[in-house]
Specification:
Elements (H helix, E strand, L loop, with lengths): L1 H13 L9 H13 L7 H13 L3 H13 L8 H13 L3 H13 L3 H13 L3 H13 L8 H13 L3 H13 L7 H22 L5 H17 L13 E6 L7 H12 L3 E7 L4 H7 L6 E4 L7 H8 L2 H4 L6 E5 L3 E3 L4 H6 L4 E5 L14 E9 H10 L2 H10 L9 H14 L9 H7 E2 L9 E3 L8 H10 L7
Parallel strand pairs: 1-2, 1-4, 2-3, 8-9
Antiparallel strand pairs: 4-7, 5-9, 6-7
Amino acid sequence: MILLMILINNVLSKASIHDSAGHAAAYSQLGTFYARGHGVKQDNSTANAYWERGAEMGDVEAMHNLGVSFQTGRGGGIQDNETAFKWFMKAAEFQQPEAMLAVSHILEDRAENVTARLWLERAAKAGVPDAMANWGVSLKDGRLGVTINKVDAVSWFRKCAVDGHAGCQHNLAVCLEHGIGVAVNLEEASHWSGLAAEAEVGLGKAKRKAGSETLEIVETALMRQCWSLRGKAPHKNSAENTRAAVLIEPRKFHLLEAVVRNVMHFAGEGWNLHIMVGNENAAYVSELFPGWEFGLHVLNVSGFNASSHNAYVRSLPFWEAFEEENTLIFQTDSFMLRPGLESYIQQGWDMIGAPTINPLGLTPSRQRGYNGGFGLRKRSSILKCLKEVSLEETYDYRARHGLGHFGGVEDVYFAHALEILEERGSALRLPPKHVAGNFSVEALYSKEPVGIHGFDKDFLSPRQIRKLFSDASEFWPA
């Protein structure tokens, strides 16, 4: 990698103004090296500078990379949606597929549906899986003003379902089950539904890179902290507590003890603990915490996939298994950097988690979505959702706003249900994006979050995770 960097720099140093266009790709590649920290120290600003030089010379990938960088504030850099749109549009005009989809999303957010529809169709025809899925939904539901053609919708779903797109597999299964644009075929519907569930389970594994440096940094920190916390007095639930941390984990997961001790340490006094376990790990979990008194709820399952997890969290039996009003739902791919839950409870949010960047997870009116893998929720508000807003109503609600199904993901359901209740007159509080980002980080970087979710998926670079730990060093063992 270092040799390749030297060769690229040598080529660039010898380039004249007359052949500069021929070196646009080299500048683009240098930008990628700096963005990823390949052979050099990771530096987002330098990456942007090289990408901008490459983009100005006409390199389409550099244009797209700049768009992504400015849209997400990649690496803790500047987040500038207007600049992001400018570079996405330039790349889209050169037929860069992912840029065409990005342009479509931004135009849709601006309610410029006619142009958004044009770019979405182009991206779909260019073979971008998410664009194919969204175009299929548009044809099925008339989203973005598209003329409804359910037969063509099924055709698009089938194209990307075959390529392994979980959303298309789910939508194709729904169409086959209910005869939407195709004859009812329950056997084939079951086939695609099963593949969609398995694809969701494998998504996190696919995103995790072999030998991930970010994961190694987090695991090392959590295990070091775990050893120090084993000397603390055992945790004991109290009937007087109105706060609870709740984990669903049916596996013998190697970081389970470290994550639980981390969360209960930073949650502090006044918090109860409930862990939902499976048949295979109940004894294992109990043995991890000698002397602890907490809610150990044994589910009659040997494991969960993503679909069954979502269905369980959307069920009354889950929320009726405990009584505490203020609930922190956390997963074993999350942890806390510092104390701070109480501040967000006092702010009175009915639901808060890391802001989602997936357009399919955003509510129609407020354009908000919160990741449920590390998030606070008011139990009474959640029960109100389950009792007064069905899953089908959230699908209908999205359809009325020209949007398709979101697949029943539990955190997306609850965000939509809360917005529906709010429109019906309930006095609810949903946090704006910047507040949610300060509470928890997933794909969008924030400087001093309370928690982090999805640390095994490389959303954060090694440089970012080191900076977060450094800024929270007073709370962690040396």
